[in-house]
Amino acid sequence: MPVRSRTTIFLGLLVVLVLAGAGLFAVDVGSTTPDPVAFDDTVPVGLTLEAEYALGDDVALPRAQVFYSQYQYVVGYYGVETFVENQRGPDHEQRFGHPLAVYVSDYGGTGIELTDEGYPVTDRSPGWIAAEEAWYVVDSDARTPAGDTVVSFADREEAAAFAETHGGTLHAWDSLLEVPFESDDATVARDRVDDRRDLADERVDAAERLAERPTSVVVGEDAATVQGAIDEAPANTTVVVPEGVYAETIEIDRPITLAGERNATIRGDGNGTVITVTTDRAAIQGLDIEGVGNRTKGGEELPVEMDDEAWDATFTKYYAGTDAGIGAYTAEELLIEDVRIDTPASGIITYESTDAVIRNVTVVGPEDPSDGLAGMLLYHSPVVVEDSTVMGARNGIYLFRSPTAVVRSNAVEGNQIGVHLMHTNDALIADNELRGQENAGLYIMTGPVGNAVVGNTVRDAAIALSVGGSDTYVASNLVADSELGLLVGSTASIYENNVIAGNDVGAEVSAMLPTNRVVGNDFVGNDAHADARSGPLRVWSDGDAGNYWQGSATVADGDRADMSYSPTDAIDRRLHRTDGTPTLVRAPALRALAGLEGSVPGMRTGSIVDQAPTCEPNNPDLLERTEWAEHAWTCYETTRTIHD
């Protein structure tokens, strides 16, 4: 595409753009100092959607909004401290330019008080004041859901009065910029991967002990029915279900293990949930379950008490109160193992079931996945799901507000969405095989933070990985043979050592903030390696660390190519599909253009540039698992493959 100067991009009247339902103000850099805008018209940073929903209407969190010289939209920060810490990043100015104007909340005259949680509440909404004119109270009792926060005032005396009541010290703008603030980023999710694996192992080890309970009741010998045996069994014992078909709907309301032998089947009557669990430390093993009801929405009540005032109560009851093979409610330390469920609705539903373990379970949904609900529907349940198979569901494995969940080593095939996360933070999705999802292989949405997506293989989907939220770690995944391999909707995230091969479009960026680190990935065999929607130029390299792009091979400079590469450029994007690439990429005009692209971040919108593309694939072993390895040319001899 033609090169446009930054001035050309930004000159013009202030324009309101509509994106994802929000009006975003475009910045006129050539104008005088811009006036503050409504916070809803900014690109927000610093708070998850769940945290927003959980706040009361009278809570007025501290905010800042910043106009940047190289960024087209206004950035809204939840917390002045979020901006202060972000602007210290080594590449922040390269990506955004320098701040043209910074405004912060003015709590003067608002009647500010703090809730028991430390959240500011006010009689009226705070106005805006230029940051350099404000006074700031640091280390007070004020907090946001993300942690300690800074409270700002236009009037120094009002700031001092707040500090007198709620603690803290006063700062002017210049001294505030020197204050260190703690903040998490995607490196936390990366460094926590092994901890999450260890946590899953601990949960599994604890659950396995439930399989060691002594037998107390055998169905058919000591009790006529399965429910009768459960009712007779002492706590912490095992009820054995011999081979056969048992036409019952049952409830487990005491901590026992229900263990089937060989082909033991529990068959419901086609109405409602077949097995309901309402106790901690229950276990279900070795059973086939069928005869599930077909209600997939519209549940009104759960079989346990819940907070009807919670912001998600209506949503939770609407779906978690529907039909399943197994429905577990406030069932902590639950074990479901070696179970097969055929269902027209959901296979397993859990609600507030912390440390539940689901392993070696097979769920088969209806022939048309859109008729069902979920293979596993996990609400408010930090769980482990491992070594299981889910087929034919609207959502294969669905996590809602289930932080620290671990989903690993599962086979998820032929669903509408394979693994679906909503409002779920700090989860690990690892080593799963996802194939043939109609819509998305993995879908992370609603602004979560700190999730890790590691070592998965995702093939044959409309969108293989759709990653939203922030501070997400996406690494060592094989994303292949899909319409769109990777949809980058997250911010402040790390994408490294992934292989993206054989897709119609390898990656597409939808995130409005250019804050992701994308390095060490391999793009091979895609019709188009990458696209970008509206927004600034994204730099997908970090110093000498870049990505491998089939078609970018040129003269080597060490183990890097000597030219930058832009997968969104009208010429570069065709190089891997064009004969004579070794000659073409060395053409003087292209070399001059590549140098300009690599030296002026922010000069073009809707674009991506890699300033340090690698000469060879970064992940050859992972690439060998595709049919595209032989197409990976090197800088030294562009017709040579990685096999030579």
TrEMBL record:
<dbReference type="InterPro" id="IPR008719">
    <property type="entry name" value="N2O_reductase_NosL"/>
</dbReference>
<dbReference type="InterPro" id="IPR051550">
    <property type="entry name" value="SCF-Subunits/Alg-Epimerases"/>
</dbReference>
<dbReference type="Pfam" id="PF05048">
    <property type="entry name" value="NosD"/>
</dbReference>
<feature type="domain" description="Periplasmic copper-binding protein NosD beta helix">
    <location>
        <begin position="382"/>
        <end position="550"/>
    </location>
</feature>
<dbReference type="InterPro" id="IPR007742">
    <property type="entry name" value="NosD_dom"/>
</dbReference>
<protein>
    <submittedName>
        <fullName>NosD domain-containing protein</fullName>
    </submittedName>
</protein>
<keyword id="KW-0677">Repeat</keyword>
<dbReference type="InterPro" id="IPR006626">
    <property type="entry name" value="PbH1"/>
</dbReference>
<dbReference type="InterPro" id="IPR011050">
    <property type="entry name" value="Pectin_lyase_fold/virulence"/>
</dbReference>
<dbReference type="Pfam" id="PF05573">
    <property type="entry name" value="NosL"/>
</dbReference>
<dbReference type="InterPro" id="IPR012334">
    <property type="entry name" value="Pectin_lyas_fold"/>
</dbReference>
